[in-house]
Amino acid sequence: MWRTWRKVAIFVGVLITMLVAPLGGALAAPAAPTPAGVTAAATGNACQPNPSPPSGTPTIQVVLPEPGQVVASPLTVTGLAVAFEAQFTIALYGQDGQRLALVQAHTAEGQTLSAFSASVPYTISTEQDGCLWLYNTSGADGSAINIVQVPVHLLAGNAPLCFSQVGGVCIDGKFRAYWINNGGLYQFGYPLAPGLMEREIDGKTYFVQYFERARFEYHPENQPPYDVLLGLLGDEITATRHGEQPFKPLPRPADCQQVASACVSDNGAWYAATGHTLGIGGEGPAAIAKQWVSKGGLLIYGYPISEVFTEKGYDGKTYQVQYFERHRLEYHPDLAGTIYVVELGQLGRQIYTAKYGGH
After folding, report:
1. Are 254 and 286 in contact, with CB atoms under 8 Å apart?
2. Beta partners for 68?
3. How many CA atoms lie within 13 A of 353 on its CB side?
4. CB 206 within 8 A of CB 196
5. Per residue in 62-120, pLDDT tens?
6. Beta strand pairing status for 60-64 and 75-81?
C-alpha cells in the first residue's frame, strides 16, 4: 500500500524514520571528517545545559550541520520544522557563551512539517567550538522554548583553502563556506582547477568551479544560501541514455493518487517529477536512499533520474549505482559500517576532462 504525500518535505520526514531502522543505527553518522587543509581542534561540546529542551518529538529537526561538524561562515542550516506562522529563530553562540548570530528561519508552511534552509553569517577572530540553538518563542513572555542544540566547530576568517594533492589548486572564496558546510572532501572531493566562466545547459553563463564530484555555480541573483548551487551533472552525463531501461520512468503506482508529487510505501518512494523510485530493491537501494536523506536530499542530489542498476565506475570497478539530477551515488558493500558505504561518483572529473582535457 502506497501512502500519498503531496509535499516533498513531508515525504523526507517520513523517509528518515522509515529507512534508518532497517539499516541498523540512527541517522547521526560519524562526525564529518575535517576538511583537508583545515586544522581544527577536537570538537568539544560548547552547548550549555539546555534551559528549555523539547518535550516529546522535536518540532525542529536538523539535517545539517551534524553534531561536531566543522563549519565556516556563512553557516547553512537545513532540516524540517513545524513552526507557528512558518518561522522560528536560530542563534549561534561561541565558546564563551557570547551570541555570534541571530536569524529568523522560515518554512514553507506553518503547521505542517516543512523543509527549511537558513544562512547564518558570523564573525570571529579565532577558531573555536560553538553551539547552534534552534527554537520557538513563547507567546507568554517571549522566552526561547523547545530549544534544539547542535554543537559545531567554527572556523575563523576566510583564508584560502588550497590543496597540495592537486598542485595547490584553491577553492574560490565564493564557494569555500559551501564546500566546508555541506560535506567537504567526503562529499565533493578536491577542486580540479580554478574557477571559470561557463555557459550551462540553461543557456546562461555562470562563474563555476569543478570538483571531483560536483560543479559549483555562483548565482549572485539569488539570496544566500541559494547563491551557490550545484550543477546538474547527472542530467548532463546521462543526456543520451534516456532510452536505456534503468532511465525509463516507471508508471505511477496504482494506488498513488494522481495529484501526489510523491508516494511512499513500506520500502521506499516514487517521485512524480521523474517517475523514479528511491529506496526500493534491497540493501543497495536502501543504503543509497539513506545517504540521500541524511546528506542533503533534493538540495544536494536532486531527484532520482534512474533506478538502481549495476555499471562500471570511473575507476573501472563495478558498483550498484543510481543517478540523480546532480550526482551518481555508488554502493560499496565492502565498506559497510563506515560513512563511505555510499560514495558520490566522480562526475565532476568526468565532465571537466571531457570539456577541458587533463585530470
Report:
1. no
2. none
3. 11
4. no
5. 988 889 888 999 999 988 888 777 789 999 999 999 999 999 998 877 677 888 889 99
6. antiparallel
Convert 121-135 to b/e letters by CB count within 10 Å (16 or more is b): ebebeebbbbbbbbb
Cell numbers describing residue 139: 507567546
Give the span between the Cα atoms of 52 and 138, in whole angstroms: 11
The sign of the CA dihedral 134, 154, 288, 187 is positive
Q: Which residues pair with 150 in a beta bridge?
A: 132
Answer whether 355's CB lies under 8 Å from 349's CB.
no
pLDDT tens for each residue of 142-155: 899 999 999 999 99
Residue 78 and residue 115 in contact, taking contact as beta carbons nearer than 8 Å: yes
Residue 331 CA to residue 333 CA, distance in Å, equals 6
The H or E element that residue 350 is part of is helix 347-356
Give pTM, 2 decimals. Answer: 0.75
Beta-bridged to residue 333, according to DSSP, are none
Closest CA to 284 of 66, 27, 22, 64: 22
Q: How far is residue 189's CA from residue 345's CA, in Å, rounded to a whole number?
A: 10
Q: Which of 296, 275, 318, 162 is nearest to 228 (CA)?
A: 296
Task: Count other Cβ atoms within 10 Å, centred on residue 202.
Answer: 8
**169-176 CB contacts, 8 Å cutoff, 24+ apart:** 169/193, 169/194, 170/194, 171/209, 172/207, 172/209, 172/216, 174/207, 174/216, 174/218, 174/228, 175/209, 175/216, 175/218, 175/228, 176/72
**Buried b / exposed e along 38-69 (16+ C-beta atoms within 10 A):** beeeebeebbeeeeeeeeeebbbbbbbbbbbb
Q: Are 6 and 259 in contact (CB under 8 A)?
A: yes
